[in-house]
Each structure stands twice: as structure tokens, then as C-alpha cells.
Recover the amino acids of this structure.
């Protein structure tokens, strides 16, 4: 696979004539995790949808480009807060959904490798309703991996999980998505502090790039610099809300 | 009458046999009590025992006419469901079809189906096909409307996911929108099973030489009220069995809730 590209989002968006966000420029470094942090309604998800090529309610003026000048949208895999597993299909079928939708031949070996990596080998034939919330999110992660795309967009993927499962999923995601350009949208400062090679706080007026701790991603949950970073992000968010 | 009974069944969960049996027994007792207390003559309201006797005396005739009505209903159900499914898919995939066809569909539903019965008899004759046409007409809309509704309410997240996977609209339809809409189709088919016997019987009333509807008119005309009741109850039992059968067949369709 070709190395993951860096991505640049430049432009402004408006919703029903009112500006959603002012002209901004967001750079996603190649092969790194960029955390986009912000409150509800500032347009985080809009940016994610723009990168993935999905239609948005807001009108966007600007462009999304990759540093290798190849189109971005076809090289994106997407994972949301809702696991979006099809309830009528087995875990195996759900993980292979992309291939089925593109009428591609099945790749049994790759499927088994990926299910093993996310720890779901024993659950391949089950339906999503038979799995726990954490297992379902693993299945969604497996489906994202199966796409084998260099760019991965995560829309608050772990926010519905309990704290313990969330930390495990964060570790797993960093491990399996190594080398890909990842944009993760989150409203959780702790998540941003743990996962971001770059952390950007989004406000209605501007993007604020924040310093990141030195520890390697995924940073330990009890790392002092990470906790300080989390606190600083929280102060920044609360300052914005006030 | 059978429509009312079935309509309450339509929303119920698993049938429990004991309450059904108890309710049937209660209804029969109530019926007999009304007959005994009011002393109505049997050509106005025959009691359950007289009706049972009439049913046994005429079992061969009733069976023959039941077979006719059942064929009309089942063939009508099959054709109506197929046409409804095709129409719903067309409407869901084509904006032009929605603009052109949807208003016509709604308008045809504003016409009482009873009003069409004489015309259908004129076009399709006194035989089976005018009744089948009647049943098809009466169930086509509920099947189309419920399946179409399901097809248009695919959860947005699935569609977004499929789009990021570079899927074509036809494969999204086949792998996501149709499976997601199957529970809606199942409830449409269950409604259709309730309506189809009504359509067939209306057709038989307007013009027929066979079928339970015809037998009821015939018996009524000859003041054989007990036979009319026997035919009517047979129709009721058939409708309930049809509904239960269809519900069983569609159970797997409706199992996954989206």
C-alpha cells in the first residue's frame, strides 16, 4: 500500500446563510492521529463529512486536498459513534460489507487476520445483537480495517462505551491503525490528550492548535503530562462555553 | 365483521391458545343466551347449535365454496404482494416515478373499492378473475405504501457508511435498503392478509356463481339464515387462519428491528 497522505482542509461553511465556521485551514499530518475537539454544533462533524466526501447540510466554500494530489474521498474509511452494524447480517458479513457493496471477490485470509487482531475470531458467525457494546465497536473497527484505506475518519467512535472499554478500544485502535492518516472527532478532552499526535480545538471563530504531551500515542492514562494536557483542554473548552 | 376481528389480531403478539378458547366459548354462550332470552325466530337469529347443524348438513357445499374463495384470496394475495413490492422499489429508486405515480396511487385509494366491483365484473367476467382483481386492488396499496415507507426510511448512518465504501445505488438498494425495509414489508403483507378476503367477498356479492360470499347471498335469499351464518363463520375462521399463516411466514422478515 502507498504511504498515507497528508491532508489539507481549507475553506468556510455556512448553514442557512449564517456562518457555521469562518475561513479555516486544518492540516492532517501524514500517518498521524489528529484530534479535533470541540463542543456540540461547532462544525466538527461537518469537517469530517467534507473529508469523507459525504453531503453536508452546510454549504462549504473551499477544498479538501491531499499532498500527493490524488482524490481524498475514495481513500477514506469511516467509523462512527453508532457501530452501524447491519442487524440482519453476521459479524463476518458486516466486516466484509465494503467488499460486498463493491462486488469484490472475498478474501477469507484477510478477514480471519483482521477478526483475530480485534479479538472477534470466535464471534464471526454471530449477529450484532448477540455482542456487547465493546465487541460491536470492535466489529466496526474490523470493518474499517477491512477497507484497507490509508485515511481513517473516526466520528466520536468510543463515546458510547464505558470508561474501561473505551481505554482498551483506544489502545487497540492506535495499534491497528498505525501508519494511517487518522482524523478523530471527539468532545472528550481525555481522549484527545491520549490519542492526538496533534490536537486542534474547534471554536466558532477559529481552530486552536494545542501543545501535545511528549509520551508516545496511546499515552498512558496516568501520565502526568497527559493529565495536564487534558486539564488544559478542558479549561480551553470551558472558556469557550462561558 | 371478519375485518374487525382480524384487525385486533394484527397488532397482537404471540397467540395464547387458552384465552382464545375461553373467549370463543364465552362468545358462543353469549350468543345462545341472546337467542334464548329474546326468543327471536331462527330465520332472524339462529342459535349456535342450529348453525352447527346447518354447517354439518352442508359441509360438502361449504367446503366447495370455501375452496373457491380461498383460491381467489391466495392468488390475489400473491399477485398483490408482487405488484406492491415492484411498485415500491420503483417509487423508491426513481424520483420521476414518485412525482408521476404517487398522486395517482393516492387518488385511486380515495375511490371506494366497492364502486369498482361492478366494473371489474364487467371486464373480467363472473369467474375467478374479477374476484382476484378485487383482492389485488384492495391489498396493492397497503403493501406498496408500507414497503415504500420502509425503503425511504433507511437509517442515514447506513447510507453514509455505504457511500464512503463507494457503493453504487443499486447495490445499496439490494444489500442495505431492501433488507432494512423487510420488517415494514412484513407488516404490509399482514395487513394485506386481513384485507384480501374482504376484496374477494365483495367481488362475489356483486356477481358470482361460486364462493362463500355467493353462498351467503344465496342462503339469505332463501331465508336459510342458519346456512348463511355457517358460511359467514367459515369465512371468519378462514380469515383468522390465513392471518396466522401469513404471520408465521413473515415472522423472519420482521424479526430484525432497524
Amino acid at each position: 500500500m502507498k504511504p498515507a497522505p497528508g491532508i489539507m482542509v481549507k475553506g468556510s461553511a455556512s448553514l442557512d446563510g449564517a456562518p457555521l465556521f469562518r475561513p479555516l485551514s486544518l492540516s492532517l499530518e501524514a500517518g498521524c492521529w489528529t484530534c479535533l475537539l470541540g463542543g456540540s454544533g461547532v462544525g466538527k462533524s461537518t469537517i469530517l463529512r467534507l473529508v469523507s466526501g459525504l453531503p453536508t447540510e452546510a454549504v462549504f466554500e473551499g477544498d479538501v486536498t491531499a499532498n500527493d494530489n490524488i482524490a481524498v474521498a475514495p481513500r477514506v474509511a469511516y467509523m462512527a459513534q453508532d457501530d452501524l452494524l447491519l442487524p440482519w447480517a453476521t459479524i463476518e458479513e458486516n466486516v466484509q460489507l465494503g467488499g460486498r457493496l463493491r462486488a469484490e471477490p472475498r478474501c477469507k485470509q484477510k478477514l480471519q487476520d483482521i477478526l483475530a487482531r480485534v479479538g472477534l475470531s470466535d464471534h464471526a458467525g454471530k449477529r450484532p445483537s448477540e455482542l456487547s457494546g465493546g465487541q460491536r465497536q470492535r466489529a466496526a473497527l474490523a470493518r474499517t480495517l477491512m477497507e484497507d484505506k490509508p485515511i481513517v475518519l473516526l466520528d466520536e467512535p468510543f463515546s458510547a462505551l464505558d470508561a474501561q472499554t473505551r481505554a482498551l478500544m483506544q489502545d487497540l485502535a492506535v495499534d491497528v491503525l498505525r501508519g494511517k492518516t487518522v482524523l478523530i472527532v471527539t468532545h472528550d478532552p481525555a481522549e484527545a490528550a491520549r490519542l492526538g499526535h496533534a490536537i486542534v480545538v474547534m471554536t466558532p471563530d477559529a481552530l486552536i492548535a494545542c501543545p501535545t504531551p511528549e509520551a508516545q500515542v496511546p499515552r498512558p492514562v496516568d501520565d502526568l503530562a497527559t493529565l495536564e494536557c487534558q486539564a488544559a483542554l478542558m479549561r480551553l473548552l470551558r472558556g469557550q462555553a462561558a | 365483521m371478519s375485518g374487525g376481528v382480524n384487525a385486533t389480531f394484527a397488532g397482537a403478539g404471540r397467540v395464547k391458545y387458552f384465552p382464545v378458547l375461553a373467549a370463543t366459548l364465552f362468545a358462543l354462550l353469549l350468543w345462545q343466551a341472546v337467542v334464548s332470552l329474546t326468543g327471536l325466530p331462527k330465520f332472524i337469529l339462529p342459535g349456535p347449535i342450529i348453525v352447527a347443524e346447518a354447517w354439518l348438513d352442508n359441509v360438502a357445499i361449504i367446503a366447495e365454496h370455501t375452496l373457491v374463495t380461498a383460491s381467489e384470496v391466495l392468488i390475489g394475495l400473491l399477485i398483490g404482494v408482487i405488484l406492491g413490492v415492484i411498485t415500491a422499489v420503483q417509487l423508491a429508486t426513481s424520483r420521476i416515478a414518485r412525482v408521476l405515480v404517487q398522486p395517482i396511487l393516492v387518488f385511486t385509494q380515495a375511490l371506494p373499492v366497492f364502486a369498482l366491483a361492478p366494473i371489474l365484473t364487467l371486464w373480467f367476467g363472473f369467474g375467478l378473475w374479477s374476484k382476484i382483481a378485487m383482492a389485488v386492488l384492495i391489498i396493492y396499496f397497503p403493501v406498496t405504501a408500507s414497503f415504500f415507507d420502509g425503503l425511504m426510511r433507511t437509517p442515514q448512518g447506513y447510507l453514509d457508511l455505504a457511500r464512503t465504501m463507494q457503493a453504487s445505488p443499486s447495490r445499496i438498494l439490494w444489500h442495505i435498503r431492501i433488507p432494512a425495509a423487510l420488517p415494514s414489508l412484513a407488516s404490509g403483507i399482514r395487513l394485506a392478509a386481513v384485507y384480501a378476503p374482504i376484496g374477494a367477498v365483495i367481488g362475489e356479492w356483486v356477481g358470482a356463481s361460486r364462493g362463500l360470499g355467493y353462498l351467503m347471498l344465496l342462503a339469505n335469499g332463501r331465508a336459510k339464515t342458519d346456512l348463511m351464518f355457517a358460511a359467514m363463520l367459515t369465512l371468519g375462521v378462514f380469515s383468522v387462519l390465513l392471518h396466522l399463516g401469513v404471520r408465521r411466514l413473515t415472522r423472519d422478515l420482521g424479526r430484525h428491528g432497524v
Notes: Residues 2-249 of chain B form a domain with the MetI-like fold fold (CATH 1.10.3720.10). Residues 1-12 of chain B have pLDDT under 50 and may be disordered.
